[in-house]
Amino acid sequence: MPPNTTKQQSGKTTTRGNSNSSASLSAEKGANANSMDALANAVTAVQASINSFREENRASIASLHLILSVYGQRITDMEDGLNEFDKRLSSVEASQTSLAKENDALREKVAYLENYTRRQNIRIVGISQNTEGPRRTEFITKLLINVLGEDSFEKPPSVDRAHRSLAPKPADGNNRPRPFIVKLHHFQTKELILRLARQKGPLSFNGSRFHNFPDCSPDVNKQRTGFSESKKKLHATKIQFGLYYPATLQFTHNGKRMKFTDPAEALTYIDNNVIDNNGHPAPHAAENGD
Q1: What is the CATH number of the domain that holds 284?
Q2: Residue 189's pLDDT band (boundaries 50, 70, 90)?
């Protein structure tokens, strides 16, 4: 009977399909089991390799720890040393500041003493070499009397010492003779000579002009030299001025007494107020000072 035959064939087909599915699942389980075993073996191998690496490098790592510990101690010691150095440096800086102030004070005292020993000295510039002869003090006394006038002195000026400066002697033909350093016996005589020299104007001996100056220390001379340009411009405008110890320029302008200790400030004032843009005296600039 045909219907029964079809059912039988359908049942055989279902049984065969179930058998194939079971076999496929069994194969897949087997493959997975093999993969897990392989993975476990790989993990085991990696773990063994890590353990082996640790064992092989344990001594090296311990050595590195020791070295780092030593370097750490050294860094700590260096930090302590630097802290101590900072303290000592601060102490040295404070001491240096104190010594610098003390040195400045001592320099001022030395400069004062040096200039005090020169308080009775004058410097005469422009006297030709070899004109003084062997008796220099007598030569200077006669020079001052002849040039400044015998009536200007109650008695001949007393000269304690007179000599040329210690600069090298000029060669023949050199028209720049060494200046005279003259020590007078009285400070008042020195002041009188300088005042008479300013009043009489240009002084000359044997046809050559010479000049009298206070004999100051090199530091003071350097300060006074800074006013050279200001003095030149005041001369050009016929303004009388005075350069007072140690280095103070004074003159009268427009009825006002001006005093300058800074050469730059003096020159700026003269350029802006005493001299016009063309280099000529400004209005009222020709007023004379003391």
Answers
A1: 3.30.250.20
A2: very high
Number of domains observed in the structure of the chain: 2
Detail the DSSP E strand segments found in the chain: 121-125, 159-164, 180-184, 203-205, 208-214, 241-244, 248-253, 256-260
pLDDT digits (tens, 9 = 90+) for 7-30: 455 454 555 555 566 667 777 777
Beta pairing partners, 281: 275
Average of pLDDT values for 252-275? 93
User: Which of 165, 184, 215 is where one domain is finished?
Assistant: 215
Specify the amino acid at residue 120.
Q
190 and 234 in one domain? no
Taking 80 as the threshold, does the pLDDT of residue 137 lie above it? yes
Contact 217, 114 (CB under 8 A): yes
Domain hosting 139: range is 118-215
CA dist., res. 241 & res. 264, Å (int) = 17
Q: Choose one of 163, 196, 215: the last residue of a domain.
A: 215
CA 86 to mean position of chain CA atoms = 23
Assess contact for 212 and 122: CB atoms under 8 A.
yes
What's residue 7's pLDDT? 47
User: Residue 15: in which H helix or E strand, if any?
Assistant: helix 2-117
